[in-house]
Amino acid sequence: MDGAPSRVLHIRKLPGEVTETEVIALGLPFGKVTNILMLKGKNQAFLELATEEAAITMVNYYSAVTPHLRNQPIYIQYSNHKELKTDNTLNQRAQAVLQAVTAVQATNAPISGTTVSESAVTPAQSPVLRIIIDNMYYPVTLDVLHQIFSKFGAVLKIITFTKNNQFQALLQFGDPVNAQQAKLALDGQNIYNACCTLRIDFSKLVNLNVKYNNDKSRDYTRPDLPSGDGQPALDPAIAAAFAKETSLLGLPVAAVPGALSPLAIPNAAAAAAAAAAGRVGMPGVSTGGNTVLLVSNLNEEMVTPQSLFTLFGVYGDVQRVKILYNKKDSALIQMADGNQSQLAMSHLNGQKMYGKIIRVTLSKHQTVQLPREGLDDQGLTKDFGNSPLHRFKKPGSKNFQNIFPPSATLHLSNIPPSVAEEDLRTLFANTGGTVKAFKFFQRDHKMALLQMSTVEEAIQALIDLHNYNLGENHHLRVSFSKSTI
């Protein structure tokens, strides 16, 4: 970075139509913004922070992460000025915006005054939006939300989770004005054609406390946060405040047994899955994406291509699996499309398989290569392209609506009439876990729910017993259930 540190920052290459609010939002995560001067004609601005430390933190952060406004990269450096002297009459509008933003920050509550917005003067709201996604046929990831909402200003933090079987998110802007503009523009819109409808409200929370940067939560102002092994990222105070503001029916937060998190969702994500890839309804969000996943921290003594095929097959049609020859605790898994890989990643990252917490990320590879003809790779690579066990081959299959995060309760189907509860309890106990509860469906004895004592035991049982031959030409079907017995 050029120049000696100063609490005044010089910002260049701003898009022509950018507003004071958007520039101020760049500085807010780092501390109080005390002044701003926009040089519209030059596409530049000066931003003054309350302390030199705050300015140094901001410059260091943005040297690691290129800042963008309106999808355009901008440049930030220290100014030669040690403070900004601005003519208040010329700079009235910027000062009004600054005062409004500062008032919201200082009281950390909606202010009774007014903020300057682009079109009209409106009462300030919280900078945090609560987003519920209805009719969720495709997975909606944190990155998709960030991409959509960033068009309205700097997104500071996002937390996603599932409550009452609905995918929800809390998203914090740098500025309440941006939150308001995003709500006006996006409430009721579909992310993808005819599905994934956004329902947006202001949250009563004015600040989110994010503990982990992973695929469930992220604080964009703190790239140094740990990834937290896939634990949900809501701290108890936020969970309690959130429970109060949620009028949806359902158990109170504390009353759900066996929960790993304040929100009682073992893996805080229950996207309802990728149907046949639809055309995109919202600009800039594609249903494509990388189909290959990199899975690491596997138990190399136990893992096989078949076990990975079975587990990842819950979330999509696995085409190929390759356990890496020189690093047998890692594998590449190719899914049928990008939605399926996102879905598998959001559900399986941080879960336990064969006693180890696995990591699932997108791979830089576009396909999984098969070994050359005649080369024996010890069975580490398998092509499952023509497998009869793919769950999502039929368009509109019921399986699309029954995709849930790994849970201790399993849904069993295709049970022949001769097989009794005792037989199934014994079969599942033999996978090394404890069967805690069992219940046949009332109307249909071909289906049942079976509860193991932990999610890890249920994952193991699903790997071992999905497609198990129960006789009479009945192969058992096993998936995760959202119910408890």
Describe this structure in words.
With 485 residues, the protein is α+β, with helices and mostly antiparallel strands. The protein is built from 10 helices and 25 strands. The strands form 7 sheets. Strands 12-13-9-11-10-14 form a 6-stranded antiparallel sheet. Strands 20-15-17-16-21 form a 5-stranded antiparallel sheet, with helices on one face. Helix 7 crosses helix 10 (455-465). The radius of gyration is 26 Å and the shape is elongated.
What structural category do the secondary elements indicate? alpha+beta
Q: What does the average pLDDT come to?
A: 79
Low-confidence stretches: 107-124, 230-287
Arrangement of strands in the largest sheet:
12-13-9-11-10-14
DSSP helix count? 10
How helical, in percent, are the residues?
10-25%
The number of strands is 25
What composes the largest sheet?
Answer: 6 strands, antiparallel
Radius of gyration: 26 Å
Sum up the overall morphology in one term: elongated
First and last CA, distance: 60 Å
> Which strand-content bin applies to the residues?
15-25%
Question: What's the quick description here?
Answer:
By secondary structure, this protein is α+β, with helices and mostly antiparallel strands. The protein has helices at 20-27, 52-64, 92-107, 142-149, 176-186, 236-245, 305-312, 338-348, 421-429, 455-465; strands spanning 8-12, 33-39, 44-49, 68-69, 72-73, 75-78, 114-116, 121-123, 128-134, 155-163, 166-173, 190-192, 195-202, 217-219, 292-296, 318-323, 331-335, 352-353, 356-357, 359-362, 381-383, 409-413, 435-440, 448-452, 477-480.
